[in-house]
């Protein structure tokens, strides 16, 4: 049995979408980050990093959205949300998943939480520098999708779900992922999937959708 600790519209979205895509039984356990519940002692036992998501699978607790997604793909290879282990495409899967979480996502955290890194008077400059780093990276995704529908192989994978989640975070930024034509087509395809729509419904996500 899976239990996903989540807060709406956070990094828990990609694992949430993937669980629904896999069609497996799971429980959602909401952590109200607006009230600071991620810092409550009860949750720190689950994830001492005081962040969501976390996944409890029969007592095995995993942190980090990318790790959770990869683990779920490994346990359900028949669903095809990651290429077979040992193949070149699996290597591509690792490359893009790691790049999304290690290269784009940290700059997005800098944008949303500049106070973690610099004094208040420097926050706007800090955010703009983070945006300057993000823009060419989303352009790389757009270029990757120039002549293909999905980021890895010829079908949807967890990488596409993760890219969708990060792209959604740009919806109120001065430069948005949805304005890139090839990436926009990917976002539309993922948004049209029943699992995505159910995730939005359950998490209470409203316009702008991405």
Provide an overview of this structure.
With 210 residues, this protein is of the alpha+beta class. It folds into 2 domains: 2-79, 3-Layer(aba) Sandwich (Glutaredoxin); 88-193, Glutathione S-transferase Yfyf (Class Pi), Chain A, domain 2 (Up-down Bundle). It has 8 helices and 4 strands. The chain has a 4-stranded mixed sheet with strand order 2-1-3-4, covered by helices on one side. Helix 1 (13-22) links the parallel strand 1 and strand 2. The longest helix has 25 residues, at 88-112. The two termini are 30 Å apart. The relative contact order is 0.13. The mean pLDDT is 97.
What's the helix and strand layout?
Layout: E1 2-6, H1 13-22, E2 26-30, H2 41-46, E3 54-57, E4 60-63, H3 65-75, H4 88-112, H5 123-144, H6 158-168, H7 181-191, H8 194-203
Parallel strand pairs: 1-2
Antiparallel strand pairs: 1-3, 3-4
Q: Which stretches are low in confidence, meaning pLDDT under 50 for 5 or more residues running?
A: none
CA radius of gyration is 17 Å
**Helix content percent band:** 40-55%
Structural class: alpha+beta
Strands of the biggest beta sheet: in what spatial order?
2-1-3-4
Total beta-strand segments: 4
Multimeric state: single chain
User: How does the overall form come out from the CA principal axes?
Assistant: globular
* Biggest sheet statistics: 4 strands, mixed
Question: In what range is the share of β-strand residues?
Answer: 5-15%
Tally of structural domains:
2
CATH class of the largest domain equals Mainly Alpha
Mean pLDDT figure: 97
Number of helices: 8
| CATH architecture identity of the largest domain | Up-down Bundle
CATH level-3 fold name of the largest domain: Glutathione S-transferase Yfyf (Class Pi), Chain A, domain 2
Q: What is the end-to-end distance?
A: 30 Å
């Amino acid at each position: 049995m899976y239990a996903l600790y989540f807060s709406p519209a956070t990094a828990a979205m990609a694992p949430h979408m993937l669980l629904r895509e896999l069609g497996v039984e799971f429980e959602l356990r909401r952590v109200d980050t607006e009230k600071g519940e991620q810092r409550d002692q009860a949750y720190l036992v689950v994830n001492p990093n005081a962040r969501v998501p976390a996944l409890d699978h029969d007592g095995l607790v995993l942190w980090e959205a990318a790790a959770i997604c990869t683990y779920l793909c490994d346990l359900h290879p028949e669903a095809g949300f990651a290429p077979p282990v040992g193949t070149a495409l699996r290597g591509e899967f690792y490359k893009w998943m790691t790049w999304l979480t290690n290269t784009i996502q940290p700059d997005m955290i800098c944008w949303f939480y500049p106070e973690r890194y610099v004094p208040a008077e420097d926050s706007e400059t800090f955010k703009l520098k983070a945006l300057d780093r993000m823009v060419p990276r989303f352009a790389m995704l757009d270029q990757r999708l120039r002549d293909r529908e999905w980021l890895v192989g010829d079908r949807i994978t967890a990488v596409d779900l993760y890219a969708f989640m990060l792209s959604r975070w740009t919806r109120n930024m001065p430069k948005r992922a949805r304005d890139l034509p090839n990436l926009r087509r990917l976002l539309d395809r993922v948004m049209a999937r029943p699992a995505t729509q159910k995730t939005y419904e359950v998490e209470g996500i409203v316009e702008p959708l991405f």
